[in-house]
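HUMAN: Ready with one sample?

ASSISTANT:
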Amino acid sequence: MEAYPIGLSLLAGGDRNMPVPDFLKAARDGGYDGVEMWLLGEGGLNFDVTDEELAAYRKLAAEYNLTIYSVAISSPAGNMLASGKDAELFAEYAIRGMDIAVKLGAGTVLHTTGNLNGIDYETGYLNGIANLRKLAPEVEARNLQFALEFVWNGFLFSPIEMRNFLTQVNSANIGFYFDPGNMAVFQKPQDWVRVLKGFVRHVHLKDWKGRALNGGWTALLEGEVDYPAVMTELRKAGYKGPLVSEVALSLAPWEETAKVMRKVAVM
């Protein structure tokens, strides 16, 4: 069975102020094939990064034989589910983040689905579709995948709802960032792949044990995510990789997580 490549995200419990060269070295030393960068308002990699710095990071990653798979965008302002100025800021930071991703050689950007603060659910839903439709030509022009991740923000809590949402956005370059740990609190993660198989663009790995009020994150394969079932569905869906760790450093050293990921990668 073909093994998936594995990557490390700085979202995996790393210091947001960790210098990029240090993160790349840690990923190489930890036994990963690539990385997911974390773009922040301020920190190790931020929106003020220069082209010269991006070129140096890309060169260093290549020297370490690391692929920069993706960039997680954490915008300091804006909201995908809003209208007006907040919607404009969402687009502005998303476009800047995509330009940074292109210069790093990444093929995917991660973005969460915004927030419903002061916005009713249906209005947020419709705003989100409208804002992503406006953004789609920018994503397509850069030949990127813009992958939305399910998070605990009270929005799109069903794989069928997520599928309907993405279907209405109607762009081959806007899809789903699958993280089985995030929905294991509420549902069977493998069901999300089964329902969203045509939309899965990227995959995080982490694990969870317990329910919403009494559970918590665990080291990989020590929780309740049925990874054999998850991986079966990913293979059926035609997903080609990579698998990117978001297992917190506090739960397991990055080197140990990489070893466990290699086991998952051949399931």
Summary: Strands lie at 6-9, 34-39, 67-73, 108-112, 145-149, 174-178, 200-205, 207-209, 216-218, 243-245. Residues 6-264 form a domain with the TIM Barrel fold (CATH 3.20.20.150). The first strand starts at residue 6 and ends at 9.
